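Comment thread on ticket #2218

A.B. wrote:
> Attaching the input chain for the structure job we discussed in standup.
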Amino acid sequence: MDGVIIDSNPAHKIALKQFCEKHGIHLTDEELRRRIYGRTNKQWLTALFGELTPQQLTAYGDEKEELFRQIFKKNLRPVRGLPEFLARLESEGIAMAIGTSAPRANVDFTLSGTGLGITSHCFR
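C.D. wrote:
> Ran it. Output below, let me know if you need it in another format.
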């Protein structure tokens, strides 16, 4: 989803930096790439903070993702050419699916905010 439907990486980077700074962790761009990018919230949060209770993990993850959505909402749009591509697939009867490790709130945010008419029928 991220990077395919929307170009969200710049907003994630800002959110991550703001989140970390708020919690007293100062990361360079290189440290972000090495320690956080490509990992789930559970993976990078425990790598930065050490052992966390399930409640702490959920709270930190929710805090960071809400920050991301607030930052990105004014720029939320599908990547260039995607609506036309999806319309072509649909007209050809080609099945489509979305794969992501993003939290459900981000999936709903993306699907409802892009105006593509995509729904998350079987999302778990």
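A.B. wrote:
> Thanks. Noting for the ticket: The chain has one domain: 9-114.
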